[in-house]
Amino acid sequence: MSKITDRFIELIDFCIPSKTKFKSLEDMSGIPAVSWRKAYTRGQRPTVEMIEMLSMIWPRYAFWLATGIADSDHGHQRPDAEMIDIWTRDEEGKAIIKRSFRKRDRTAAYSYFDKCIHLSRLRSKQEGDIDLSLSQKRVEHFYSLLQEAYREKKIREEQERSLVKIENEEIEASLTKRDKLDYVSFEDFDLSIQLKNFGASKD
User: Fold this and answer.
1) Where are the domains of the chain?
2) CA-to-CA distance for 54 and 40, rounded, in angstroms?
3) Per-residue pLDDT tens for 112-134?
4) What are the φ/ψ torsions at residue 140 (nearest 5 degrees)?
């Protein structure tokens, strides 16, 4: 598994490929460009504040950035496309055949993540608020956003179910009646999955 500094650099390169990436990061985070450059060139380890800011700006990559693990079924992606590799044997049961599929983006998760971050920031401001009239307006705004986040969550869950079904159907359709499914390989794991998990036996 890659180190967090490797992922830190990879994410910056993926999200901000321009030569002005450090100035852009400073503008978005308030952390000086020189500090971003130093961490990027491995002159220091990325700080907690840098990891937090990247996670807040691009929440879809936050889980992968912190752990090195993608969970794309729920919208926690890695910068490059996550693939599903299907390994089967030929009709005689000898040669190994590989087929690859790109997992579909769980786009509904992005809105949900953004709403949750907005709610978190609003709640932090509310806790330090002294003006009671302003506080009441913020409370009303907070609960309005909370309702929106709940709706986004339900949309995300429905999209997840639909896309998993589509992906599993694609895997099934790729297998001939004589194919023997050995295992399914994801980007970060090799998982032994029985053919029955994708539908009726092809034997």
Assistant:
1) 4-57, 80-203
2) 13
3) 999 999 888 877 765 555 455 55
4) -65, -40
